Amino acid sequence: MIPLRRNRDFAALWGGQVVSALGAQIGGTAMPLLVLATGGSPADAGLVAAAGTLPFLVANLPAGPLVDCADRRTILLASELAAAAAVASVPIALWWGTLTVAHLAVAAFVQGLCSVFFGLAERAALPLIVPAAQLPAAMAQNEARARGAALIGPPLGGLLFAAGRAVPFLVDAISYLVSAVALLFVRRDLRARATTAAQPPPSAPADHLPARATPATEPLWREALEGLRWTWRQPLIRAAIGLLAVSNLVFQALVLILIVLAHDRGATEVGLMLGVYSAGGLAGALAATRLHRHLSARQVIVGVNWVWAALLPLFAVAANPLQLGLIGAACAFVGPLWNVVLMAYAAVLVPNQLLGRVLSAAMTVT
């Protein structure tokens, strides 16, 4: 078996996404700053942010069948090029003096929509690029990529915005183009293949059901429902998605809660706290490349939730931002292991021709 580091297709996909993920974090940081700098209100900034996240709720379910029936390479390329065009329109409108909040909201929506399609297509294509035995390691590298971009991107976005309002968006648009070029070096056929369900890991339920490919003539809504039905039949996956939905609710709110708790200490200490928090996630992503080999899916799903249950009450008694950051870092450390094991488990168990629909169903719920 070729080592993962010598897998040229994975290296091209991963390397392009390192650049693209960093650019997205830079542009995402600069977007609310641009809204405020051009006369918009905090409410306007919130509307633009909501426009960017709306596709993750409304587009995931219909995107799944499209990812399963179309050429995933085409979806990946089209998503990066469309996102580059949407982001590039921002500095162009800024230079022409025609930039509006509505324009920014549309650009954010298109960027979010492209992110939905790219994310589903990338996850569905990964089992075709990487052997099953190397999937956890590949997903751990993807986690490290995302966590590293989240750590470096925001401060870099702020610095670039200070250099010029258009600069972060130019960098973001170029990063999408770099990713699109990198995709041209992926030679593997990424179209969905009609396969039977793989044998589950030892921790999987014994009554998993194989799934068939949905005919292309089926209505889109019926194809999307097939992913929901298949997911519902899997007890462990069903329970994991429920836990993931609850944990997302908690941790999406946690950062805001931490900022509120630490606001009296000043911006510097708040920044230190969030930096420590993010560093914990990056360290966890790097550690997940080894930890996943020693733990079953069931142990991770149960164990990580117990770790979070033990750590979360400590926020109530933390005395300063550094302590808040360290507790947050411990919570963030185990998160990548949870993501890696769940995604690797799904990639092995779910038939590839159904993987886009199952992932879209899960992501819509979570």
TrEMBL record:
One Pfam assignment: MFS_1
InterPro entries, per the entry: MFS (IPR011701), MFS_trans_sf (IPR036259)
Coiled-coil ranges from the UniProt annotation: none
Compartments in which it is found: Cell membrane
Keywords: Cell membrane, Membrane, Transmembrane, Transmembrane helix
Residues annotated as transmembrane: 12-39, 45-63, 75-96, 169-186, 239-261, 267-288, 300-319, 325-350
Principal location class: membrane
Membrane topology recorded in Swiss-Prot or TrEMBL: Multi-pass membrane protein
Protein name in the entry: MFS transporter
Organism annotation: Paractinoplanes rhizophilus
